[in-house]
Task: structure prediction
Amino acid sequence: MAKRRSSSSTASIDPSLLASLTVLTDPRAEKSRLHSLAYIVVIAVCAVVSGADNWVDIERWATAKQEWLETLIDLPNGIPSHDPFGRVFAALDPDEFQNLRFWAR
Result:
């Protein structure tokens, strides 16, 4: 189970970002959903903002930041490997990401 943020922590995920991610259709078969779609996207966005530019870099960044990530999100199955990141993003409908454009404003 993930560690919960202490009240003195400054790290948090904007609830409106997580809410905007609920419009994304999860392309994975239900039995293969080891990781939350929203959290896969959040991890990828954080990693890319931090300089990651491929799926292996995203996995490496997330593994290095796992303790911090666990203060923000539940990771009961740990960090996804690079393969799930690649498969999920390849299967997502790019048009659904238009809603994230409104969150970023």
In short: The first helix runs from residue 15 to 21. The two ends are 33 Å apart (CA to CA). Residues 15-23+34-104 form one domain.
